[in-house]
Amino acid sequence: MMTNDTQNPLLAVRDLRTYFHTFSGTVKAVNGVSFEIGEGEVMGLVGESGGGKSVVGFSVLGLIDEPGKIEGGEILLDGQDLVTAGEDRLREVRGREISMVFQDPMTSLNPLHTVGRQMDEVLRLHTKLDADARHQACVEMLESVGISQAAERLKAFPHQFSGGMRQRVVIAIALLARPRLIIADEPTTALDVTIQSQILKLMRQQIADKGASMILITHDLAVVSEMADHITVLYCGNVVERGKTRDLIETPSHPYTRGLIDSIPDTAHRHDRLMQIPGSVPDIRNLPKGCNFRDRCPRAQALCAQQEPVLTKQHATLWAACHYPLKPGETA
Ligand SMILES: Nc1ncnc2c1ncn2[C@@H]1O[C@H](COP(=O)(O)OP(=O)(O)OP(=O)(O)O)[C@@H](O)[C@H]1O
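That is the input. Now the predicted structure with adenosine-5'-triphosphate docked in place:
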């Protein structure tokens, strides 16, 4: 189902289903997820732990391993399906067209090699630049992510950088091959608050400068509300709401989105209460019939236990899967 306004999106994910076949049952981690991202857009993928955010990211990167499998759907990059692409094509896509930034910078960095060597490697693989030009490009990239004395720092090993500086290095590496899409999975969660906002600003600015798009995966709605053009909210492997950031934050239509917003400290202050969504995420191996959120939902009625809601157009740019969505002005 096409539910965004984007014409010729850079990435279109359609009805993606990624399951893990475990001894204790099939985990339908992603179960019919669709979204689109246009050139230069930032899309926030949010929701509580276990919603399927990371599995969406890994699916797009072609990095789902046993016992996981993409069971259905399409991941179209410029119209070309990555689900059916071979490993060679996927390897080419990773690094050149899509790069990734993870929560722990050491996941992406090799502790045994200097930062310069790791940056040079990317350019050797993906460009035809000679050694001098590659060195120059590495210095410039490191400077552009706010690391001074870049030529010197290229000779240092990852452990010689602080956590925040290491994440800057990872961002520099992610940008080097001039990817069209960056998938950032909780990129600042491990960093302290001041550094978090510096890194987020840096990512936003770098993405704008280089004309790249980004999927920003986070449980933190406050972070995406500052960074993203669009937001997609996942719950139990399904999209429960999506739309433009401003519409979704100011007048959400799904009670789950409302709950997430009320859990942001600042917003809660405005509402004069700090609400946590009651209850916990159900076991996705054993989901109840009907709406997955109904046991935690203040608006649930009999229908919610009988029939699964489907994504439907709501007010403004919002689409939500809810039988009793909030209208603008309603707060609970
Ligand atoms: N290798 C695996 N084997 C079995 N189940 C898995 C595997 N990887 C992920 N899952 C399951 O898939 C579901 C979605 O996980 P995912 O990590 O995508 O959630 P998330 O929204 O990113 O949460 P978090 O913020 O905790 O990372 C979870 O129930 C998780 O247990």
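Residues 280 and 296 are 8 Å apart (CA to CA).
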